[in-house]
Design goal:
389 residues, mainly beta, 5-stranded mixed β-sheet, 34% strand
Length: 389
């Protein structure tokens, strides 16, 4: 039936589902588990989590979807060729791109919008490719913890509006934006981040002609390519299920930022500045940094049809040093970047493609795009480029 709905009606329906889910959270609060350690504000009868082991106040966790696995994560998902994916994706379609040991894969947000987690193996490495629509957070993690390989699912819970994942082995709860275990056997454990970037499908196809793309053949009936959160990236009201303080250093809670933790310091680069400048040269402590911006990527959370949304672009952060030489960059005439020290040309992936340093690769920094309100909720002491000195 949903496939016959017009986009606007479908978007309104999804908004109503979110409202019902919020209401369900208050009703579920009356159902308490027998375990004295279990959170009293959440229904826990269907969980086998060790709730006595936790690092957060359970009152910070809210119900986003009243059913565990109500949003079904994918495991060992079907992949397809660039040619097959081109039948339904366009150049500006946003994807999460990873390359490990020569195995390049793209995960369209058109699909992850509806599943939020893909448990996969890339280049022999078990990874979880994750996307939280409410926070616009796309992050990939190594699924290995000690000797165990974990499979992740969607708990239906949120903290600071961000997805709370769980592992199916111990049913520990994990924060998607930080990769930190919140409750259960793995409380306090940090997952290792795997380098990944949100880029356009066109850029991925150009770089990885033999790459693989997450298929729409998931076994689930979903409106892949549709955005059930229409207009979410331009809303002026409080984000869904977020009851924390809004950091007003940026104009809107859903302003896009490229954010990272570097030597225990949180930093954020507003997309508004990145889009205008094209490149940002920065120094944090003694580390020279450069942020590259590239356009041509549709916002996954704008229009009802993802590929019709405004161009939000994307950005990546790198250590601006090669073999001891500190580099400073400017926009190049052809749309790339040029370093002032050698005049070499670079692309947005931190690769020198021409000049004296041709073939050099800048070291990638674990930085990802997020909505400002979500990043600031977890890292309130964040330094905001252009506003904090």
């Amino acid at each position: 039936m949903l496939k016959q709905m017009p986009p606007r009606a479908f978007s309104l329906l999804c908004s109503l589902v979110l409202i019902v889910a919020v209401g369900s959270g208050s009703l579920l609060a009356h159902a308490q588990a027998d375990d004295n350690c279990a959170p009293r504000n959440l229904r826990t009868s269907n969980w086998r989590t060790d709730f006595c082991n936790h690092i957060v106040d359970y009152n910070e966790i809210l119900v986003g979807n009243p059913t565990k696995d109500g949003i079904p994560a994918l495991t060992d998902p079907r992949m397809e060729t660039i040619a097959d994916a081109s039948a339904w994706l366009v150049d500006r379609s946003p994807v999460i791109a990873l390359e490990i040991e020569g195995d390049a894969r793209a995960y369209p947000l058109a699909v992850l919008m509806w599943h939020e987690i893909a448990n996969d193996q890339i280049g022999g490495l078990p990874v979880a490719v994750t996307f939280c629509p409410l926070c616009n957070s796309a992050i990939a993690f190594d699924r290995r913890v000690d000797e165990a390989v974990l499979d992740f699912g969607v708990s239906g819970l949120l903290r600071n509006s961000d997805l709370v994942m769980y592992d199916r082995q111990t049913e520990s709860w994990w924060q998607q934006l930080t990769g930190e275990g919140l409750a259960g056997d793995y409380a306090g454990v940090l997952l290792d981040i795997v380098p990944a970037q949100v880029i356009s499908f066109g850029a991925f196809a150009e770089r990885h002609a033999d790459g693989l793309v997450l298929s729409r053949a998931t076994g689930y009936a979903r409106q892949y390519g549709m955005n059930p959160y229409r207009g979410y990236d331009s809303r002026t009201s409080r984000p869904f299920l977020f009851d924390g303080e809004i950091d007003t250093r940026l104009p809107s809670p859903v302003d896009h930022v490229l954010a990272a933790i570097i030597d225990d310091t949180a930093v954020a680069y507003p997309f508004s500045i990145l889009r205008e400048a094209g490149v940002i040269n920065d120094v944090l402590g003694e580390m020279p940094l450069v942020a590259f911006y590239q356009g041509g990527v549709a916002s996954a959370l704008g229009d009802a049809v993802i590929d019709n949304a405004r161009d939000i672009g994307t950005a990546s952060l790198y250590h601006a040093q090669v073999d001891g030489l500190i580099l400073e960059f400017a926009r190049g005439e052809s749309g790339g970047f040029v370093d002032a020290q050698t005049g070499s040309s670079w692309n947005a992936f931190g690769e020198a493609i021409d000049g004296e340093l041709a073939g050099a690769q800048l070291e990638w920094i674990n930085a990802f795009p997020h909505f400002w309100f979500a990043w600031a909720a977890f890292y309130p002491d964040t330094l905001v480029y252009g506003m904090d000195g």
